[in-house]
Sequence to fold (115 residues):
Amino acid sequence: MKHIVATEIHIRGLRQLPAFMNHSKHSLRQALKSEGCVYANMSLRLPLVGYTLTVWETEEDMILYKNSGPHRTAMQHIGALSYRYRTLSWQGDRIPSMKEARKLLRDVPFKIIKS
Fold:
């Protein structure tokens, strides 16, 4: 079984979009190079919603990624870029599509970020 993580991030506004995309690009590259990463992808949908989907060999591999490098830097700036997000982790034996991940995220409550 693989460790799967899907995230939905609502961007504060158009002014924050370039910084969000830059952090996302660097975090995606980091994930793809990280030990234990099986799959990593991101997408942007209007109005200003970013999605990520990563699949890991183990939860420990994901935690090492999450707490280091560009992803850690991005998380330090999340309050300036986003006002709410939701994330879901689960164990699975296949890589879900982004559409499947977005559907699963609908039932997850948002975490509100105070700026």
In short: The CA atoms of residues 16 and 81 lie 5 Å apart. The mean pLDDT is 96. The chain has five helices and five strands.
